[in-house]
Amino acid sequence: MNSVFRSLSTYAAIVIGVLGVLVVLYAWNLPPFRGTTEETNDAYVRGKVTLLAPQLAGYIVEVPVQDYQNVKKGDLIVQIDDRIYRQKLEQAKATLESAEASLDNSEQSRKSAEARSTPPRRLSKAPMRRSNLPAPPSSAPLRF
Q: In the 3-class helix/strand/coil scheme, how is the chain assigned residue by residue?
């Protein structure tokens, strides 16, 4: 009788405790006593659940189908608000136009810089002639 588990009353208390826990789980319909089928007073309820995953996120504007309606592949189930995507499209178009204008401006600046850096071309290859005017005297006094 030195050990706690040698007593018959200890075993009885453990068995009564485990049975009490099992009774509480059964009464509250908790696992392992809960079934997978929901029941009503009149019939069994079973439902089919189909998960839908949209390719775009957004607010739903319209749901053109009714409950329990049969749908086929390609049928419209929900319509998502497209105003946000239209705004993003317009913003992307404006950004593209701005980038194209900047590119045109850069191209024009490059052409202007090339035109300024190259010496002017002569139209004809004939040597330039001096006019028949007399040369100014180099010893003439300067007047101011």
A: CCCHHHCHHHHHHHHHHHHHHHHHHHHCCCCCCCCCCEECCCCEECCCCCCCCCCCCCCEEECCCCCCCCCCCCCCCCEECCHHHHHHHHHHHHHHHHHHHHHHHHHHHHHHHHHHHCCCCCCCCCCCCCCCCCCCCCCCCCCC
Distance CA 91, CA 97 (A): 10
Cβ atoms of 80 and 54 within 8 Å: the answer is yes
Rounded Cα distance, 22 and 33, in Å: 9
Averaged over successive runs of 10 residues, the pLDDT of the chain (144 residues) comes to 67 92 88 72 71 82 90 89 93 96 94 80 58 58 58
84's CB contacts (< 8 A; 6+ apart) are 58
| Residue 111: both structure tokens together | 């052409």
Q: Count of residues for the chain?
A: 144
> Where do the structural domains in the chain lie, given as residue ranges?
1-34, 53-67+77-117
